[in-house]
Task: structure prediction
Amino acid sequence: MNLEALLADRLSAALASVAGGPVDPVVRQSQHADFQSGAALALARRLGRPPREVATEVAAKADLAGLATIDVSGPGFLNLTVDDAALAAGVDALDDDRLGVPPVAAPERIVLDYSGPNAAKELQIGHLRSTIIGDALARLLEWLGHEVIRANHLGDWGTPFGMLLEHMADLGGGENEHSLGDLTDFYRAARRKFDEDTQPSVRSGAVAGRSDGGFKARARLRVVALQAGDEPTRALWRRLIEQTERTFLDAYGRLGVTLTRGDFVGESFYQEQLSSVLSELDEQGLLVPSEGALCVFPAGFAGRDGEPLPLIVRKSDGGFGYAATDLAALRHRVRTLGATRLLYVVGAPQRTHFRMVFEVARSAGWLPAGVTAEHIEFGSILGADGKMFRTRAGDNVTLGALLDEAVERASSPAIGIGAIKYADLAGDRRSDYVFDWDRMLASTGDTGPYLQYAYARIRSIFRKAGAEPGPVVLAHPAERRLALALLGFEAAVHAAAGRREPHRLASYLHDLAVAFTGFYESCPILRLAGPYRASRLTLADRTGRTLALGLSLLGIDLPEEM
RNA sequence: GCGCUCGUAGCUCAGCGGAUAGAGCAACGGACUUCUAAUCCGUCGGUCGCAGGUUCGAAUCCUGCCGGGCGCACCA
Result:
């Protein structure tokens, strides 16, 4: 049941009849009543009539029988107060698995690109937001009835693999798995060898020496071998990728993220499509040689010096960068996978990149009418000092270490990890946020534990309650407030999914928990007998269902007890 | 330099064209013989960065300025 939509429906009929055409009823929650509409104010101006007069006419024509009462207030607001009987019936009806929310009428096929860590590295805190936000959106959109194709765009290709594979070969070809046991150490060691090799060319080290001379050069050759399909090199590469995929899946499992191995489609997958990306762009006359590279110059992008900014499709050394891969992936997702909507959950700093990619794709005809691409950007996680969140030593924080600390501090995986996820999802994703253990683990306030606690109390009641829930009767103001909150679920889910803003759902759930806690404090249940007890049990039951469903859509677990 | 983005209560943030700007934290004062007090109730606290403009109405839209962040050709 969607109260707002129901009220808006009834009001828009009245508004249309007064205006002689469709008018957006703009029904919103209000402090002055359950809901309000300011539509008459705007309409009055259009009609050149006094606002209160228009409002009065709309109120008179609105058919709200059995649903709400309406009155004109202030300069011409329409205040709507929902009938208690309608509220009670609405809550009674929330007894199915979907809480009365129907699947969308027109499902889309959505490719949702998120997480995207780099192979051969552990997941870092830098991947946390993309993973958490992306997974919440995946769950939400899927639950609403869309077909969601999760795409974990792994960084499994490119220049760093030269040094990684060469280092791996030095260690004995990766025969022994534990050489990759700690990927962070492995990566660091390779990096160190690469950086410490200052020799300008391979020539001086060509005399098979024990010194590591020429590591850099060998790494470069290794990249060439990888891209040329050299089988021993490919075998090393596969081994490395398999190992890292295993560690990613472990981390996703711990985090409670729905990505599976089948969702892993790394950059390597698109390598054989790159030449045709190039040729199609060329056929359309979009490709421009510049300083040795092949570029597209989408309109409206200027660089530091005011010159047009290129999207570099092929580098001057003949290699392909991420722009080419992103274009290939986009084309593949539309053309082969048949997506009607592309979502990229990637940090805000890449905004320009995605604008350019989308613009070029449109020019190339890879984003036809009816297909949309959207960059779901998000801000950074900051430390208490307001700078990027790092360890004391200045290193990136690994996800494993972060989750360990969360579980230790909360002494419960569900609570610790839920706290991290909730903190990430509770604010506007575009804003940076400060990572603060004490705040996110607080049992009071807008936090995961607060919501989980409300749920645990409900479960506790039902462990003790003998009687069955019964029809809702609203007698206490706290019951009414809770009922109203319960009926706001559908609107919250649609707001969150429609704008790809999970915090709309998170903050709804917090409001619901607050309404429940108020009810819990002032409306005893177990002590009662008869219809009021049954009614309150129903209210508690619906709250529990809504919290459980809502939090599951955000990817947050709920303990039965706390 | 150009572009994008953000500046709301001491702190962390909602609100993004509508009625006296909301939460949480912190501070202060209350509430447990009562379904989990990991809770609740109350008080205190804001010229919504500054200045103009559009509008019946602006934290919300436009312009300028100040301040922070990010981006600006071969790393993704």
